[in-house]
């Protein structure tokens, strides 16, 4: 994807977590997209690789019907097998430079960062966007470390690629990120744990436009 297309995909970025759901993941994802989600990251820590691949292929078809990208969390083998649009890696995963070599120049590479140094290194190593967090307390990822909003602002000022905030973001606190310089937010339970996924996505999309 081109740089402007990647930036357009960042405003409302959904990271999946099936633990919250009372329906198939594919149905929940489609509802979220219909409500305004602009990018999907498939995050699976408890599926076999075969199940992960099958779920990825199902979601890729849905995402492409709506012309939005599907990003795979961490697993390059799954990303390549699914032929997903990109991959997202953390600081404890494979080095971004190595990942870029493995996936080629056409795929999207997202990297999680918490400091300016990490952000600059990720950009130099070929990242297309950065996920910065956790900006608020989150119960989705137990080991998430806090990043204050001032650090988030400096990261946004220091790089030329899109930055999205992640971690504990919901309708009650999203506007605290105004003036931070971010290009979007990544959410999990703010959509996945809601009874009405379409409405939750619509409400968040309206708030994102105020950032």
UniProtKB/TrEMBL annotation:
Binding site for 2-[(2R,5Z)-2-carboxy-4-methylthiazol-5(2H)-ylidene]ethyl phosphate: 138-140, 168, 188-189
Record bears the keyword Transmembrane helix: no
A GO term for molecular function: thiamine-phosphate diphosphorylase activity
Note on how the cofactor is bound: Binds 1 Mg(2+) ion per subunit.
Domain Thiamine phosphate synthase/TenI residues, every copy: 12-191
Enzyme Commission number(s) from the entry: 2.5.1.3
Enzyme class: transferase
InterPro entries in alphabetical order: Aldolase_TIM, ThiamineP_synth_sf, ThiamineP_synth_TenI, TMP_synthase
Signal peptide interval: none
Cofactor needs: Mg(2+)
Amino-acid positions noted as binding Mg(2+) in the UniProt annotation, renumbered to this chain: 74, 93
Keyword annotations of the record: Magnesium, Metal-binding, Thiamine biosynthesis, Transferase
Pathway field: Cofactor biosynthesis; thiamine diphosphate biosynthesis; thiamine phosphate from 4-amino-2-methyl-5-diphosphomethylpyrimidine and 4-methyl-5-(2-phosphoethyl)-thiazole: step 1/1
Residues binding 4-amino-2-methyl-5-(diphosphooxymethyl)pyrimidine, per UniProt: 41-45, 73, 112, 141
Catalytic activity: 4-methyl-5-(2-phosphooxyethyl)-thiazole + 4-amino-2-methyl-5-(diphosphooxymethyl)pyrimidine + H(+) = thiamine phosphate + diphosphate; 2-(2-carboxy-4-methylthiazol-5-yl)ethyl phosphate + 4-amino-2-methyl-5-(diphosphooxymethyl)pyrimidine + 2 H(+) = thiamine phosphate + CO2 + diphosphate; 2-[(2R,5Z)-2-carboxy-4-methylthiazol-5(2H)-ylidene]ethyl phosphate + 4-amino-2-methyl-5-(diphosphooxymethyl)pyrimidine + 2 H(+) = thiamine phosphate + CO2 + diphosphate
Coiled-coil annotated spans: none
PANTHER family: THIAMINE-PHOSPHATE PYROPHOSPHORYLASE, THIAMINE-PHOSPHATE SYNTHASE
Family named by the database record: Belongs to the thiamine-phosphate synthase family.
Function: Condenses 4-methyl-5-(beta-hydroxyethyl)thiazole monophosphate (THZ-P) and 2-methyl-4-amino-5-hydroxymethyl pyrimidine pyrophosphate (HMP-PP) to form thiamine monophosphate (TMP).
Record protein name field: Thiamine-phosphate synthase
Organism from which the protein derives: Allocoprobacillus halotolerans
Phylogenetic classification of the source organism: Bacteria, Bacillati, Bacillota, Erysipelotrichia, Erysipelotrichales
């Amino acid at each position: 994807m081109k740089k402007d297309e990647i930036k357009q995909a960042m405003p409302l970025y959904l990271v999946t977590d099936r633990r919250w759901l009372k329906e198939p993941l594919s149905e929940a994802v489609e509802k979220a997209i219909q409500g305004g989600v602009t990018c999907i990251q498939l995050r699976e820590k408890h599926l076999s690789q075969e199940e992960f691949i099958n779920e990825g292929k199902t979601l890729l078809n849905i995402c492409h019907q709506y012309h939005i990208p599907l990003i795979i969390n961490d697993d390059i083998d799954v990303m390549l097998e699914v032929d997903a649009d990109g991959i997202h890696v953390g600081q404890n995963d494979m080095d971004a430079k190595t990942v870029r070599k493995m996936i080629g120049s056409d795929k999207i590479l997202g990297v999680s960062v918490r400091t300016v140094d990490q952000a600059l290194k990720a950009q130099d190593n070929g990242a297309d966007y950065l996920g910065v967090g956790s900006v608020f307390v989150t119960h989705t990822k137990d080991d998430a470390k806090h990043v204050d909003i001032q650090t988030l602002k400096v990261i946004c000022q220091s790089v030329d690629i899109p930055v999205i905030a992640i971690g504990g973001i919901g309708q009650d606190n999203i506007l605290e990120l105004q003036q931070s310089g971010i290009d979007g937010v990544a959410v999990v339970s703010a959509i996945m744990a809601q009874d009405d996924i379409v409405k939750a996505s619509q409400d968040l999309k309206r708030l994102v436009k105020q950032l």
